[in-house]
Amino acid sequence: MFTLLGPLVKLPKAIDFKGRHVQRPSSDIDAIRQVVNQVLEVHALEEGGQRSQARAEILIHSMQVFAIRGLQRTTVQHLLDASNVSRRTFYKYFRNKMDVLESIYRIFVDNMMLHFHREVKQASSVNDIIRNTTKVYFDHHVSMGPVIKLMMEEARSSDSALAPHRIRAQTLASEVLAVQINRYTGKDYEPLVFLTVLWMLENYSLYIFDDGGFSQQRLDLCLRVAVGVTESLVLGKAAPSMLERPA
């Protein structure tokens, strides 16, 4: 179960308006640091341990390394150089580079789920639930930049260390949607219905970064169509503007 600790923070975008990879300014790094520290505080409370700032710094600076170099071309030395820590410190907290990537992915998933739960609880209608949670989903994927495509593709592999975190988040989200939408509609939806919606969103997120860059046009299209399809599925109708090709 997720615990809310203080204000939730959205990750800043890691792409410019033309979709090019950019070096995050210090203000962006600070925002990422706030997100990472907040989620690690939650993990520490749940697991009865203490948050390590050295571990957090490795995670924070490794995100851009994975985004630029990809999984195969990234080495532990690259992560050491980016985070400015010793090899001894690195291996105190991580087994290898995949362990780092898994931790980054878990932070991303848990941070998104914190926002997801908040939007569901604050919604005043089914339309609010659908539109707000869909926006949260895309906001968090875009904010991670190109590294999210790498992590999502890795998480879809059944033998990946990332896969259980993906399955856990999707299962929790589908159950929450089923319960909360039932409050407004009185319909007892099978959770698989909402898993199907989440699988759709997952594929849309990969499509947004399909050519290795970012497309605002594809994002706007995916957001509009995803909301329209989900409203049609749950409510039996959607505004024509959500699904029809603009004139």
TrEMBL record:
- Pfam families the record matches: TetR_N
Q: Which InterPro entries match?
A: DNA-bd_HTH_TetR-type_CS (IPR023772), Homeodomain-like_sf (IPR009057), HTH-type_Tx_Regulator (IPR050624), HTH_TetR (IPR001647)
Give the source's domain of life in one word.
Answer: Bacteria
The molecular function terms in GO held by this entry are: DNA binding
Q: Where is the HTH tetR-type domain?
A: 52-112
Keywords, in A-Z order: DNA-binding
Q: Where DNA binds (residue ranges)?
A: 75-94
The residues forming a coiled coil are none
PANTHER family hit by this protein: ACREF/ENVCD OPERON REPRESSOR-RELATED, ACREF_ENVCD OPERON REPRESSOR-RELATED
What is the recorded name of this protein?
Transcriptional regulator, TetR family
Lineage per the UniProt record: Bacteria, Pseudomonadati, Pseudomonadota, Gammaproteobacteria, Oceanospirillales
